[in-house]
Amino acid sequence: MAVVLHAVEHGSSAHLEPISEKTALDAVALAEWFGSEQLRLLRGTREERDEKRLDRLVDLLRSRYPGQAPLRDLYLRNGFAAEEVRELAAKFPASLKLENTQTGIRGGRPSEIAKLIQPAAYEPTKPPKPSRLAPSSGVS
Q1: FRET label pair with 3: which of 36, 117, 122, 124, CA 20 to 30 Å apart?
Q2: pTM over 0.85, yes/no
Q3: Which residues contact 40 (CB under 8 A, 6 or more apart)?
């Protein structure tokens, strides 16, 4: 970029002039601007992808697990790598958290568990049972 800026500044005599410090700094500033613009454009796509993956994980934890599941199961049975789940938990702490389980009576190593923050809020609501004391319609 510095060469292009230098050529714009000096035209056909650019090959006779040394590149100035100002031209080099302008080239660096321009490269940084282009880089930040590229990241800004990509950020929206990344956030959208992460939100979709979180929605998929939350739906999975709601429907197939009781609001929590070992990272190992999420990977082996559902394709969620442990690192991805950790990143989602860090990025969306209001929805998901990670915990380590304690070893059981028979031993074994502890498991890392992905847990919904409010599993009860994600359970489908059941319709109320009809009351036995409800008045009859009067039709016999």
Answers
A1: 36
A2: no
A3: none
